[in-house]
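In response to reviewer comment 3 from the previous cycle, which asked for concrete evidence that the modeling workflow produces usable outputs, we include below a single protein chain processed end to end. The sequence was submitted unchanged, and the resulting structure tokens are shown without manual editing.
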Amino acid sequence: MSGRKQFDVGAAVDQAMRVFWERGYADTSLDALSAATGLGRGSLYGAFGNKEALFTRCLDRYSALYGTRFEQALAAHPHDPVRSIEAFFAVTLDRIADPSVPAGCLVAQSAAQSSTLSAECGARVRSLISAQQQRVRTSLAGSSADGRSLDELATFVVAVNQSLAVLSRVGSPDSELRSVARVACSTVANAISAG
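The workflow returned the following structure tokens.
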């Protein structure tokens, strides 16, 4: 179509995701989104609706990228729950160490700023954390521990994972983050063997 500028919607979502990831929802302005995507306000609204709708798309994109990596890591050791959790933390530590992406985690960042989100966006963030807990819980299912203990371990693992993202945002060194992950894996191993 002549006269209409075409753009790559996926690339625009990735660029917007990076801005939300770096700044958080409340501190991300339409001007910042426009600058990052190269789209004017009218084009942003035309393509995505509003800031909240774009943010939701960014959460979904982030979840698709990293959720798949977590699932693969957790499934790589189906009969060894501790190795599955080690692989899960390795995904997070690799993302944190990747200089091409912002520090931390978009979901953790959004959870920390949940008071600034609409009820719908807050529910979406909670659902992403719940999905992560379910992934972890599924990977622990082959152990001999009872169901309640496994539920608690899954919550613990996700809490540590989110904490790693927060610690990375404040500049904690890689060695400290890896130490936290090692202690968490030891805790999981001890809890499973005690069960």
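The radius of gyration is 19 Å. We consider this sufficient to address the reviewer's concern, and the full set will be provided in the supplementary archive.
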